[in-house]
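User: I'm curious whether this sequence folds into something compact or stays loose and floppy. Could you predict its structure so I can see for myself?
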Amino acid sequence: MDIGNIFSGIQKQTPDEILETVLRTHQFKIERIISKGHATAEGEWYDQDKNEWVLVLKGNAGVLFEGDDGTVTLKTGDYINIPAHRKHRVEWTDPEEETIWLAIHY
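Assistant: Here's the prediction. I'll summarize afterward.
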């Protein structure tokens, strides 16, 4: 039995966003993502082959979907389901505190 804590081992003041696989099977992958002032590179979009359910455990972020006029703001406790091939990008994450995401790719 594996026991862990989603909030343990978080590095402070890292220049890069951190993506860590928590669990992977043939059907899904669970990731912990840690951001602090990070955003998707200008002009780039995520276009994933699988659906992605994302929960913000801590912090705040803005996500933009291709073709939409406004950014979706996510705060602690908010979640969103992103269908496969729905192009999106992270416009911003809180620069003052870590934004901790739980992402399930299925």
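Summary: The two ends are 23 Å apart (CA to CA). The beta strands are 18-24, 29-35, 52-58, 60-65, 72-75, 79-82, 88-93, 99-105.
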